[in-house]
């Protein structure tokens, strides 16, 4: 499993484009917001964490459809599925998801505080947004794996993946944003939504990987 | 160890492609699956590999012990696709498969020397020609031990020398008590191999 993780991470870094595309898209989304809503600094600071979350969510959907498609096209997927008596397919999916998250989504989390400055988000808000993104974005990848597995056989599944999984990522978005707001706006609590966010990630780490494994096995032909 | 297929039928997209295929193979035996295009050779191999469920019948492996509990676990599958990443070097590709598949046999470098790619083992897979890619995929069969080799048009793209070398590797595998099931149009240079003609 470690071998698979390392290989996938290596592939992700070597192809390079994935992380860069995501970061640029994230930058584009965040950079156009102030132009759209006007230069009201207080207002920007208030919606800033939410914009960071929406931007990161959309950016992390990019490249998801290649998660299994690339393996399917070069025949790797067959061999991964055949090895299921040694490596459970769900664990194989988990390794691939973690590698995808490390190379494609972690850069988004790391750049989030910088982009938060564009939105005049105060320091505690930046820290909270980064922390919630760090904890919450893996859930998006695990949910995305299900969509990617279902559309692995389709030639242009990219948009379909996004449409399929967006409704499922809404809870992650809600609790991510409310935890971030809880850290900044005083009456709102931080810990309860943050713990629910953590639970969502753990929950989807199991459900998402198992469902994706099931979908992959069903799609083999 | 014994690989047995009983009354296997295969379908694709709900259409029956072949039916009532039966064979049994003991260690050291090879089966050549021949027949016209569309006769279901590749489908049969995918059924044996456990990638497709048979419409009817069973494929079973007995005597594999704990290491190889079912036919799927005991098979190397060399399909039309090579299963290699173009961005990684040959050694990196093979080292991964050796690690992932378990039961290590030859080291990646040794395996590449066996197929005549020893001196370009550092090149990315994407730089290679069709025949060299095929040879690299064949090297995957050597880095990890599996008693059954399922080969789908294994010599497609190989030149004469590489073909002869591959025939030698297959004979070596059979000599070690392995089993080979190969779908092919070309003679593979295996003496005494049984033939299963499909689509007639």
Task: Please describe what this structure looks like.
- The model of chain A has no long low-confidence stretch (mean pLDDT 91).
- The radius of gyration of chain A is 18 Å and the shape is elongated.
- Chain A has one domain (2-219).
- Chain A is mostly helical.
- Chain A has helices at residues 2-15, 17-37, 41-61, 66-73, 76-82, 89-118, 123-150, 158-184, 191-219.
- Chain B is an alpha/beta fold and 200 residues long.
- Chain B has a single domain, classed as Rossmann fold, CATH 3.40.50.300.
- Helices cover 28% and strands 26% of the residues of chain B.
- Chain B has helices at 41-48, 90-101, 108-114, 130-143, 160-175; strands at residues 2-12, 15-25, 30-34, 56-62, 75-78, 148-152, 179-183, 194-197.
- In chain B, strands 5-6-7-3-8 form a 5-stranded parallel beta sheet, sandwiched between helices. A 3-stranded antiparallel beta sheet of chain B has the order 2-1-4, with helices on one face.
- In chain B, strand 6 (148-152), helix 5 and strand 7 form a beta-alpha-beta unit.
- In chain B, helix 2 (90-101) packs parallel to helix 4 and helix 3 (108-114) crosses helix 4 (130-143).
- The two termini of chain B are 30 Å apart.
- The mean pLDDT of chain B is 90.
- At the A-B interface, helix 1 and helix 5 of A face helix 2 of B.
What is the gist of this entry?
The complex is a heterodimer of chains A (221) and B (200). Chain A is mainly α and 221 residues long.
Question: Layout of helices and strands, plus pairs?
Answer:
The complex is a heterodimer of chains A (221) and B (200).
Chain A: H1 2-15, H2 17-37, H3 41-61, H4 66-73, H5 76-82, H6 89-118, H7 123-150, H8 158-184, H9 191-219
Chain B: E1 2-12, E2 15-25, E3 30-34, H1 41-48, E4 56-62, E5 75-78, H2 90-101, H3 108-114, H4 130-143, E6 148-152, H5 160-175, E7 179-183, E8 194-197
Parallel strand pairs in B: 3-7, 3-8, 5-6, 6-7
Antiparallel strand pairs in B: 1-2, 1-4
């Amino acid at each position: 499993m470690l071998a698979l993780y390392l290989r996938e991470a290596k592939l992700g870094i070597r192809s390079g484009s994935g992380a860069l595309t995501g970061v640029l898209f994230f930058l584009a989304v965040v950079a156009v917001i102030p132009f759209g809503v006007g230069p009201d600094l207080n207002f920007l600071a208030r919606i800033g964490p939410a914009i960071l979350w929406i931007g990161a969510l959309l950016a992390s959907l990019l490249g998801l459809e290649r998660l299994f498609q690339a393996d399917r096209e070069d025949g790797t997927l067959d061999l991964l599925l055949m090895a299921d008596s040694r490596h459970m397919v769900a664990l194989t999916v988990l390794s691939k998801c973690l590698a995808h998250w490390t190379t494609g989504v972690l850069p988004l989390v790391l750049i989030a505080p910088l982009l938060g400055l564009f939105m005049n988000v105060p320091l505690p808000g930046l820290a909270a947004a980064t922390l919630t993104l760090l904890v919450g974005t893996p859930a998006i990848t695990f949910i995305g794996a299900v969509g990617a597995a279902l559309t692995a056989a389709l030639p242009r599944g990219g948009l379909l993946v996004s449409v399929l999984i967006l409704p499922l990522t809404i809870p992650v978005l809600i609790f991510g944003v409310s935890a971030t707001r809880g850290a900044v706006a005083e009456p709102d609590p931080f810990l309860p939504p943050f713990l629910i966010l953590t639970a969502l990630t753990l929950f989807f780490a199991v459900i998402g990987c198992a469902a994706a494994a099931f979908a992959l096995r069903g799609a083999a032909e | 160890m014994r690989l047995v297929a009983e009354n296997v039928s295969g379908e694709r997209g709900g259409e029956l492609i072949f039916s009532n295929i039966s064979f049994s193979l003991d260690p050291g035996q090879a089966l050549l699956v021949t027949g016209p295009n569309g006769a279901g050779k590749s489908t049969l191999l995918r059924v044996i590999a456990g990638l497709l469920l048979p419409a009817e019948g069973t494929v079973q492996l007995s005597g594999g012990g704990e290491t190889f509990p079912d036919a799927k676990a005991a098979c190397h599958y060399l399909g039309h696709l090579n299963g290699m990443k173009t961005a990684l070097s040959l050694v990196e590709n093979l080292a991964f498969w050796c690690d992932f598949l378990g039961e290590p046999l030859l080291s990646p470098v040794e395996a590449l020397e066996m197929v005549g790619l020893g001196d370009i083992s550092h090149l990315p897979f994407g730089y290679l020609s069709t025949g060299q890619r095929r040879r690299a995929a064949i090297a995957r069969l050597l880095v990890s031990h599996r008693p059954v080799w399922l080969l789908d048009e294994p010599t497609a793209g190989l030149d004469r020398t590489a073909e002869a070398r591959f025939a030698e590797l297959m004979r070596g595998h059979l000599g070690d008590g392995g089993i080979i099931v190969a779908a092919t149009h070309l003679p593979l240079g295996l003496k005494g191999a049984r033939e299963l003609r499909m689509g007639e």
